[in-house]
Amino acid sequence: MASATILITDLEGSNQIKKMQAHISSPSCFLSSTSTDDNVADFPHHEQNPQLSVTAVLNHCKSKILTPYLRLLSVVGLRPLLANQLEPCFCFRFVNYIYTIQLVFLLIVGYLLQYMACFRRDRGFCFKIANNPYLYQTQIKEIYEKICHAPVVFSFIIPSALHLVAYVHAVVVIRHSEDDQLPVLMERVFLTSTNISNGRGSQRKLVRTLWTFVGLTVIWMTVSFVAVMFMMGSGTINFKWLDDAPVAIQTGLKVLLVTCTLWHDVVQATIISNYCLQTQLLTTYLQFLQEKLLQHPVQPLDWIRHIETFKKMLRYVNIEVAPSVCMFTFINIACATSGILWLFNYDDVDKETVPIVGISTLNVVLWVLLALAPFIQASRLSNECDVLRSAGQEVRTRPFVHQDTPRHDLDSILLYTASLKLRAKLFCMPVTGRYLCLFFVFVGVGVLVLGQCHYFNTS
């Protein structure tokens, strides 16, 4: 702490700034230096020099996005609920362990209740219109009765097992990784932005973008919760093995089912949003590094070291973070596809059930959106990696910024960037915008052909 304070108070020379940036790259230094320095003004007050205080930049990063989001991850169980930065505490570890077990238990209870109530995430509760002459005499048009044709293995066991494994994998990776990547990555992005023009504006834009992802995640969870409530209120819900249970028990099970289902959505939406945030930070980090290269004379070796750090973080996302996201995405694609086929009455067995007007379609749309989000973010990151390959050639054509840089240094940057082959990967496959466009073209052609062949009867 003493060394961090000395470096913070003396930032006049460029060598000291470099030492400060290198020292602050570790999470422990970040947590200790930014939490106790109350003498540094808030970031927006540094109007004259964007490099005036590295600590102010990190305070801005921590207060605006990092701390609130890490608390959200702690609530979901992806990070310890209680943490002591100075010395590990057995009590804290015990509380975190018990809390995680409770969250896993809540997931398992939700899987069991969904099976007992025959609640499918692709269709919701399966209802049919009641065939009762008395209803027509009382001019009641649509009253739904529950019916269940769901195959146990494919509708409940496999999706539940994948969902649980994906959550456990995400917890293990994020909690027990040697490098706490999200805070480190966020620090690096904010520090790199101080070396480009309009750094403060870029940082504010980045904060708004990250909060947009969090806001969209909350909206998705809220709409999904509302859809589940509408499904439950549209017909009579009975639980397997508890048909003759008292009304109070039935009501309690319904409340618990809604709570567990909401928790399922919170878990997977948070993990997918964490992936989207990290890919967005990597995309922005790469953009800032390119702007730094094009706007200021830089040492080739220093810039290449930054790119190597980016490669390490990208590898972490592709190898460690992506598998859990892929498992959730696999479930979401299956739910979306099954729901679409059911909406168009292509289920060979389930012919009696009918969709709830508006709600069933909304449920399918939610799964489609959640399944597409990781692919869109991965393709954006891959496209930015493609742009990086042309940065070396652009540097060679700039007559003013790098006019004093030796030619062999520029050639080194050109050769290095031209040799880069970086991609964001999902399901161990590189994801690019071209592949996504090609996929949507095939889907559009398939829908058009099926419609022309009278498979979609809209009349």
Automatic annotation (TrEMBL):
Keywords: Membrane, Transmembrane, Transmembrane helix
Source organism, top-level taxon: Eukaryota
Ranges annotated as spanning the membrane: 94-113, 152-174, 210-232, 321-344, 356-376, 435-457
Name recorded for this polypeptide: Uncharacterized protein
UniProt source species: Zophobas morio
